[in-house]
Amino acid sequence: MSGLGEQVRQRILDAVDAGFDTQIAFTRDLVARPSIRGQEHLAQDLMFQAMRSRGLAMDRWRVNADDIKHHEGFSPIAVDYANAWNVVGTHRPNAETGRSVILNGHVDVVPAGPLDMWNSPPFDPRIDGDWMYGRGAGDMKAGVVANMFALDALRAAGVQPAGTVHLESVCEEESTGNGALATLLRGYTADAALISEPTGLHLTRAVMGVLWFKVKVRGYPVHVSRAGTGSNAIMAAYDLVASLREIEARWNGIKGETKHYGALGHPVNLNIGKIQGGDWASSVPAWCEMDCRISIYPGHKPQAMAREIEDAIRTASSAHPFLSNNPPEVEFNGFFTEGYDLEPGSDAEQTLAAQHHAVTREALGDQPTTAYVDSRVFVLYGNMPTLVYGPEAENVHGFDERVRISSIREATKTIALFVADWCGVEPAGAA
Ligand SMILES: [Zn+2]
According to the model, what pLDDT value does residue 2 have? Predict the structure, then answer.
């Protein structure tokens, strides 16, 4: 089942335990850095220093949209990339006798939302029993740190991977996936990739694509006393939301045609995430803008699904007295990504399953996710077997996000053994 000697395996597991307090302390430090979009450098500075101090060959660069926008996996952006940094640390073996691997994770986190809804401040991580609370603790700073400490455990056990390992800490996972895409286009590939997203120690079998779009609705302002003669952009937006809901229902209605999403209750989720409009209470609003997100099934192309959305908005507008002559604009301004199904039974999957069993004494379960994961970059454009596997988290993107500490320990052990088994090992240290 595995080429790993029993002694080496036990030394690696012991090393994860011995380093675990340090690992949790480092995880807290990383969670304390509020690396929401536009501030990813706060976390990347710490990751860069930590990887460099471990002797990895370092590469740090700012994602440049011009370098990647020609690629079909690129998502359009409407923000500045001044702080969109990627960090990659590379381990090179003395004798390259084994297979290579990418260990990937993202440090960007979603906004905390209203602070009064949290039981403790989102960027002041708190440990209570077996849980660490904080924005990004689960999604996915615990995983990013687990990747690095998995490599530490090998070294502490007196060995190192006999293949190249790229330790990737990327940005832009929560809004575009352009961070991971930039690593691929910079030349980082491997015989397999592992992303330690919080999967509850399950393997992710399928990933959906995601589209972000902004609908810009115009109105015709008049004094409210003559509102009947104007056109209210906010009220018109309600009608457009109804037509988007119809798309959501239609796409959920064909879930049975997919490989992995038929058993889920409601795989396609439309989110009206942000809405703005009007200027004050006594004028009919002349404008309304909605930021929306919807998911698409594996095999469906973003371009085709985007056209369906545009068509639905156009059809709904054609029945409207003002919008029929002033059609809303639909701007795709973020995620424009395709999903995928993971083919079962790859060597990499078997290796992970064996090591997961060695750590947990349970069979490796799998599940599809209705969310976006950066793995689509590696699978669709890098042709790499890609395993999404990591600790257990709750309330990701919600209030009181938390990650189960014992699951971090198990994930770190599994990842460490996976790397040792997949890459093979050689004595630690310089040749
Ligand atoms: Zn994530």
Answer: 52
Same domain flag for 38 and 142: yes
CATH number at residue 255: 3.30.70.360
Residue 119 per-residue DSSP state = S
Q: Which of 336, 366, 394 is the last residue of a domain?
A: 336
Asked whether the predicted pLDDT for residue 431 surpasses 60, the reply is: no
Q: What spacing in Å lies between the alpha carbon of 197 and ligand 1's midpoint?
A: 6
Arithmetic mean of pLDDT, 333-355: 97
Q: Burial, 193: exposed, middle or buried (Cβ in 10 Å; 0-12, 13-18, 19+)? A: buried
Range of the domain at 291: 220-336
Which of 283, 303, 336 terminates a domain? The answer is 336
212 in a structural domain: no
What pLDDT was estimated at residue 1? 41
Number of domains in the chain: 2
CA of 138 to the centre of ligand 1 (A): 8
Question: Nearest 5°: phi and psi at 112?
Answer: -75, -25
Residues near ion ligand 1 (Cβ under 5 Å)? 139-140, 197
- For residue 198, give the nearest of 417, 409, 394, 414 by alpha carbon: 394
Say whether both 89 and 144 belong to one domain.
yes
- 165 and 240 together in one domain: no
What tens digit of pLDDT does each residue of 237-253 get?
Answer: 999 999 999 999 999 99
Expressed in angstroms and rounded, the spacing between residue 90 Cα and the centre of ligand 1 is 22
Write down the residue that tokens 């229902």 correspond to.
249
* Whether residues 242 and 196 fall in one domain: no
Within 8 A by CB and 6+ apart from 291, the residues are: 212, 213, 214, 272, 273, 274, 275, 333
**Cα 238 to ligand 1 centre (Å):** 31
**pTM for this model (two decimals):** 0.95
Ligand 1 centroid – CA 4 distance (Å): 31
Specify the CATH number for the domain of residue 19: 3.40.630.10
Q: What is the mean pLDDT of residues 55-80?
A: 96
Question: Residue 140 C-alpha to ligand 1 middle, in angstroms?
Answer: 5
The residues, any chain, with a CB within 8 Å of residue 418's CB and separated by 6 or more, are: 194, 351, 352, 355
> Do both 88 and 190 map to the same domain?
yes
Mean pLDDT value of segment 139-152: 98
Compute the distance from residue 5 Cα to the ligand 1 centre, in Å: 34
Distance, CA 271 to ligand 1 centroid (Å)? 17
